[in-house]
């Protein structure tokens, strides 16, 4: 079997091994692939892996040997899964490799918004403490989380893990999801509708996938329903947020701070409205990337193809 990895660099910049996939066929790994070369590089391959390189209906049509698309990520919005299904191509994602890492990172961003530890450490390095008249100083309002409410949009694997850490910090949790598992409710954590979540949360963390119905779920109208000073965390997908509206909310002070690991176009474009916003932290899509979770991702990617070849495909997100 011919196997092509279109954009392997971020998964394995050199600290992991492709041996598992090599053992399954004739493997070609590209660090990255420009859109215009996708069809040529897939060529006659039967299996292709992509992380963030789009695979369109046209690409699927142009690659008739293709039988398996492996997404090297949880979110699979870059693949036209319906076109793949119609062409009999299975699309497998990697659902749970990064649950702990992404939840940990969502809380890391929240803690950074609450304390600005990195910023204050830079101030000390720049000599500000040495020059300070007092024994301490802080340049942002500092926030204690205990007793505050976290609203989680998308109460799946990562959302639930984030809730557990938030509860450990003494927070109450409100969860909004299109499916509700009442067994997950506790004294500190209950399901609510979106309206109540928006109105009652001190922190809102996004953990739902990017679907047409969740695109721009954070927009001028939903922001208007939030508490003044709310903190917003996005470690899911950039397009869940109407970025111009988030900027407006930040600049006006309606939103107290936002931390996003994902933006609408990645890498971030120079004209992204969030770049100049007040009280914003932007990181370059690193929530998933600790070595431990990338190794887990690699292992599941290999297993996905093994199971597909054995006729027992797993983690299939479409109907081939
Ligand atoms: P999951 O499938 O376990 O959970 C997603 C939850 O969202 C599910 O409970 C689902 O019912 C819910 N949902 C779906 N549509 C909804 C809607 N319209 N309204 C409300 N809830 C809805 O997925 P997960 O493993 O928790 O991952 C969540 C997302 O995190 C992924 O889709 C991906 O976009 C993102 N992610 C980001 C990174 C990163 O590095 N920043 C890494 C991994 C995953």
UniProtKB/TrEMBL annotation:
The keyword Nucleus does not apply. This is Glycerate dehydrogenase. It comes from [Clostridium] clostridioforme 90A6. It holds the Pfam family 2-Hacid_dh_C. Residues 22-318 form the D-isomer specific 2-hydroxyacid dehydrogenase catalytic domain. InterPro entries: D-iso_2-hydroxyacid_DH_PdxB, D-isomer_2_OHA_DH_cat_dom, D-isomer_DH_CS, D-isomer_DH_CS1, D-isomer_DH_NAD-bd, NAD(P)-bd_dom_sf. Belongs to the D-isomer specific 2-hydroxyacid dehydrogenase family. Residues 107-287 form the D-isomer specific 2-hydroxyacid dehydrogenase NAD-binding domain. Keywords: NAD, Oxidoreductase. PANTHER family: D-ISOMER SPECIFIC 2-HYDROXYACID DEHYDROGENASE CATALYTIC DOMAIN-CONTAINING PROTEIN-RELATED, D-ISOMER SPECIFIC 2-HYDROXYACID DEHYDROGENASE FAMILY PROTEIN (AFU_ORTHOLOGUE AFUA_1G13630). The keyword Chloroplast does not apply. PROSITE patterns: D_2_HYDROXYACID_DH_1, D_2_HYDROXYACID_DH_2, D_2_HYDROXYACID_DH_3. It comes from the Bacteria.
């Amino acid at each position: 079997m011919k196997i092509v990895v279109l954009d392997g660099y971020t998964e394995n910049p050199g600290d992991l091994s492709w041996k598992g996939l090599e053992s399954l066929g004739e493997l070609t790994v590209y660090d990255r692939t420009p859109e215009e070369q996708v069809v040529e590089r897939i060529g006659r391959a039967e299996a292709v892996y992509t992380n963030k390189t789009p695979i369109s209906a046209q690409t699927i049509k142009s690659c008739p040997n293709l039988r398996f698309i492996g997404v090297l990520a949880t979110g699979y919005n870059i693949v036209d899964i319906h076109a793949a299904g119609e062409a009999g191509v299975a699309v497998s994602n990697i659902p749970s490799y990064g649950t702990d890492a992404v939840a940990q990172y969502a809380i890391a961003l929240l803690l950074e918004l609450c304390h600005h530890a990195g910023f204050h450490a830079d101030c000390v390095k720049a000599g500000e403490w040495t020059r300070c008249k007092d024994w301490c100083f802080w340049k942002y309002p500092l926030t204690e989380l205990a007793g505050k409410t976290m609203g989680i949009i998308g109460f799946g694997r990562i959302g639930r893990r984030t809730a557990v850490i938030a509860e450990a910090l003494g927070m109450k949790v409100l969860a909004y999801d299109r499916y509700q598992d009442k067994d997950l409710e506790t004294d500190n954590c209950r399901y609510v509708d979106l309206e109540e979540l928006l109105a009652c949360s001190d922190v809102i963390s996004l953990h739902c996938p990017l679907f047409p119905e969740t695109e721009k779920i954070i927009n001028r109208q939903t922001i208007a329903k939030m508490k003044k000073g709310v903190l917003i965390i996005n470690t899911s997908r950039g397009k869940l947020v109407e970025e111009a509206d988030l900027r407006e909310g930040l600049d006006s002070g309606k939103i107290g701070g936002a931390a996003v690991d994902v933006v609408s176009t990645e890498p971030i474009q120079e004209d992204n409205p969030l770049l100049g916003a007040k009280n914003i932290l932007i990181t370059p899509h690193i929530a998933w990337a600790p070595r431990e979770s990338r190794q887990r991702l690699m292992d599941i990617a290999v297993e996905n193809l093994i199971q597909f070849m054995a006729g027992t495909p797993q983690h299939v997100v479409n109907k081939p």
